[in-house]
Specification:
It contains 3 helices and 13 strands, in the order ββαβββββαββββββα. The chain is mainly beta and 239 residues long.
Length: 239
């Protein structure tokens, strides 16, 4: 896939949250014969995949040419977690506070659902399954709080997502029409995963070094991080 923010208890500040994905060109992520880890194999053929992330803004992206979906909000199955799922009330726990909390062994696999994400003003085309997919393996997707507005797109799963989950309005109560069976992703045939510790890599070409690296004076970075005007980022056109 092109962009994949995902949750996981092996990360410090989970769930994955409050990422802004805006103004990108995301296209042709379909290299299905590439060996990869199992999770990456499941994401192949998609543009932007939010795998169990929450409270993300996905706006004004140009997304096209994908075998599955342009944008997919899907669950992430973590088979060997080291902590239980946080409740929505715990989503804003800071990284510093998270370090001090003792994990709770969930006793088995956990399923992170994509919740309360906003998908607004994107242009999505040439998706072989659906332009937008919203799916869950264990919950009614209408209870997840995701919203959709002002997207230029074709078919969605469930059907007519912008009518079901508007960002400025009342969400529908019945999301059953055209629901997507995400379990089919687990049944697909893919090349075997590659062990990154032993995988063969192409030889590196000689790399240009920094000019005068040994003698150049140090210059501290200032005004960091850069203050980005998100409202000024427009929907890009296809090249």
């Amino acid at each position: 896939a092109g962009v994949v923010p995902n949750s996981g208890s092996y990360e410090l500040c989970y769930p994955e949250r409050q990422t802004t994905i805006i103004g990108n060109l995301v296209y042709s992520n379909n290299q299905g014969d590439t060996p990869a880890i199992d999770v990456a194999l499941l994401a192949m053929g998609n543009g932007i995949v939010v795998a169990g992330g929450v409270l993300n803004d996905i706006q004004r992206n140009q997304v096209w040419d994908h075998d599955k979906a342009g944008i997919a909000l899907v669950p992430y199955l973590e088979e060997d977690p080291n902590d239980d799922l946080p409740t929505p009330e715990e989503w804003d726990t800071t990284c510093a506070d998270a370090k001090q909390q003792r994990p709770t062994d969930p006793g088995g696999a956990i399923l992170w659902n994509a919740q309360q994400n906003r998908v607004i003003g994107n242009e999505i085309s040439d998706s072989r399954q659906y332009d937008i997919i919203l799916a869950s393996a264990d919950l009614d997707v209408g209870t997840l709080g995701n919203c959709f507005a002002d997207n230029t797109m074709g078919a969605t799963a469930p059907t007519d997502l912008e009518a079901l989950g508007p960002c400025d309005g009342t969400q529908a109560t019945d999301w059953s029409a055209g629901t997507y069976d995400i379990i089919t992703w687990l049944a697909e045939d893919h090349p075997p995963s590659a062990d990154w510790t032993t995988a063969d890599l192409p030889a590196l070409e000689p790399q240009e070094n920094m000019p005068d690296a040994a003698t150049a004076p140090a210059n501290p970075a200032t005004n960091m991080p850069v203050d980005v005007d998100l409202d000024a980022i427009a929907l890009p056109a296809k090249p």
